[in-house]
Design brief:
The structure is a homodimer of 338-residue chains. Helices cover 43% and strands 15% of the residues of chain A. Chain A contains 13 helices and 12 strands. In chain A, the strands form 3 sheets. Chain A has a 6-stranded parallel sheet, sandwiched between helices. A 4-stranded parallel sheet of chain A has the order 7-6-8-9, sandwiched between helices. In chain A, helix 1 packs across helix 2. The longest helix of chain A has 18 residues. The interface between A and B is large, with 47 and 46 residues. The first copy, chain A, binds a DNA duplex (30 and 30 nucleotides) through helix 2 and helix 4.
Chain lengths: 338, 338
DNA sequence: ATAGTCCTTTGCAGCGCTGCAAACGGAACT
DNA sequence: AGTTCCGTTTGCAGCGCTGCAAAGGACTAT
């Protein structure tokens, strides 16, 4: 049986299809009488508007896409959890894409591919993509970038102040008396900008305390995963002068590092203090609980969606802005014990 | 500037729009000559097909929706991680929806709402929805259900054998010498079917070993979260006869339970052995690592997508089937120490 | 040379909706 | 009674593509 259409409803209600459309969309001035007639007909026929047709007619899809490197990384999962309802509230469906941090995949998404028609705008947390790459994108694509990539003025950027946050994290380690502090998670230019900002904070904290930085204690990792943290920590422990504290560039890295430490019979924080970044739920339950930098994820999500929807609505190009949301240091057992 | 259309390409290539369509879709017999001409024109104009228009014309959206209760629950995040590429490979985009376990929300999604046009089929992991509710759904919606809800014959169901898996988990606890075994995560009918199957396995393992079941050791929880596990474990420890092992209905519950145990200075597994369910990544890195039931998530994802796409393609109703995928017991430190 | 065959290409109509601007009808005013 | 005005309702065209079936062209068989 055929799906009922606007025309069917119009016929039953004795009005024009256009009027039915007006009622359905809550548009314009429709008298109570006609509205009632139409609504009765809609109910009787069980009519539901065909979104596909509407999309074609309006040229908009009512969808936004959120692109993250990995869906099963708790930080991104938690962020998405916040983005979806925020977008829904503004009438947008959320498409999700994961790129596995693959640069080509990210490029394809922001480029002018055929999928472009499926979404009205994009929120992306780039990983493989370097600053330059962002310019190859479809210039008509409303874009909001999360994380650490600076805006080039054509898109918005939402994130926390990574340098300040990292400085706080390391200063905290210094404050509790640690002097040989390592950093796990550094990454080279061009794609590792998030990492570089954190390394900068690492240095800044040392400078502020008048401490020298032992460059050999800055450990690079391919990613921010548990396994990277575990491996890097093992390498640090195999040295003859292991650190007494580690600033990990994500909570997952911290989790991996702790795993290695405890596995070797060392105590956290007594032997080595650990601080992470992101405040994922795991960190609040792991043993010990993980001190961390807590970004305001709800605010990031809300701000990103608001800005994106604004861009979509504006029609033309909108100057890009840098939006910083709040963060705070959350000391837990992995630094202060207890 | 207007987006270039099929017609523009046709004009430039000197063929009919229909032929361009054929080339774009890889359809039919198109001679190499015309194909070349058309492809040159496409490249020159930077043409990309308008998916919205195609959707309207074909009446299909090329999207499937995956509905999970919580996106930030690692189990679901890991499952989605597997579903997205599987669907993409078959030409489908994945829409994601989270319901917060809200029954009304789940009902709305499977009902005949207007969003129906946005997807060709649905994979749902129901939580609030009881068996009966599944019948209120849009009968034309191709549906695959994950988890524990049995098929009523109109949709497919993909999952592991929960009773068998739970039996194995508890038998493992018995095999390592535990006799006072608790269960955390039971839930009442009608929505707690997953939980009930696990409770059934709990009983079956006791029966097989000739052990009595202490009913007071079966603890109900509202959800399968860390906080539920932590709270329930605390209650168990406050009794005068605490258990020497706990079967947790999810790894998150296990994580919470361990958190409580260690917080009270108890040792895992020496004082209390813990086994979880789901094999989320956390469990492989927590301290101690968590013994668990490992469902073959890749297989679940692949099977679910394959069946769904088959259903979508079939046009008519397809008899529902029960599909069981493999699982295995993975003993780790939380039961066998080390 | 002519008819028949087969395969490529085409034209038409329409998917169901909305943008636009015109038509309509009633109320208010002269 | 006639005109103007204003707000509701309507008609038309078209978003860009595909399904269908027929047209066209090349080639083979008689």
């Amino acid at each position: 049986m055929r799906e009922t259409t606007l025309r069917d409803v119009a016929e039953l209600a004795g009005v024009s299809p256009r009027t039915v459309s007006n009622v359905v969309n809550g548009y314009a001035k429709v008298t109570d009488g006609t509205r009632a007639k139409v609504e009765r007909a809609i109910a009787e026929l069980g009519y539901r508007p065909n979104v596909l047709a509407r999309n074609l007619a309006t040229g908009r899809s009512g969808q936004i896409v959120v692109v993250v490197p990995y869906l099963d990384t708790p930080y991104f999962a938690e962020l998405l959890q916040a983005i979806i309802p925020a977008a829904r509230k503004l009438g947008y469906n959320v498409l999700i894409d994961q790129t596995d941090g693959d640069r080509a995949h990210e490029e394809e998404l922001i480029g002018r591919g055929s999928r472009r028609f499926l979404f009205d705008g994009m929120i992306i947390s780039p990983l493989g993509l370097a600053q330059e790459d962002l310019s190859v994108r479809d210039p008509d694509l409303p874009l909001v970038v999360l994380g650490e990539r600076r805006s080039d003025g054509t898109f918005d950027h939402v994130g926390i102040d990574d340098v300040a946050a990292s400085t706080e994290a390391v200063s905290h380690l210094i404050a509790i008396g640690r002097r040989r502090i390592a950093a796990i998670g550094d990454q080279p230019y061009p794609t590792g900008e998030a990492a570089q900002l954190r390394t900068r904070g690492f240095r800044a904290a040392h400078a502020a305390a008048g401490l020298p930085v032992d460059e050999s204690l800055i450990i690079g990792t391919a990613r921010f995963n548990r396994i990277d943290g575990a491996t890097a920590m093992a390498a640090l422990l195999d040295r003859e002068d292991p650190p007494d504290a580690v600033f990990c560039y994500s909570d997952l890295v911290a989790s991996g590092a702790i795993h290695t430490l405890l596995g070797r019979g060392l105590r956290v924080p007594e032997d080595v203090a650990i601080i992470g970044y992101d405040d994922i739920e795991d960190g609040r339950y792991s043993q010990p609980t993980i001190s961390t930098i807590q970004p305001d994820k709800k605010a990031i999500a809300q701000l990103a969606v608001d800005r994106l929807v604004m861009r979509i609505g504006s029609g033309g190009p909108v100057p890009g802005v840098e939006l910083k949301v709040a963060h705070r240091l959350v000391p837990r057992q992995s630094t202060i014990g207890g």
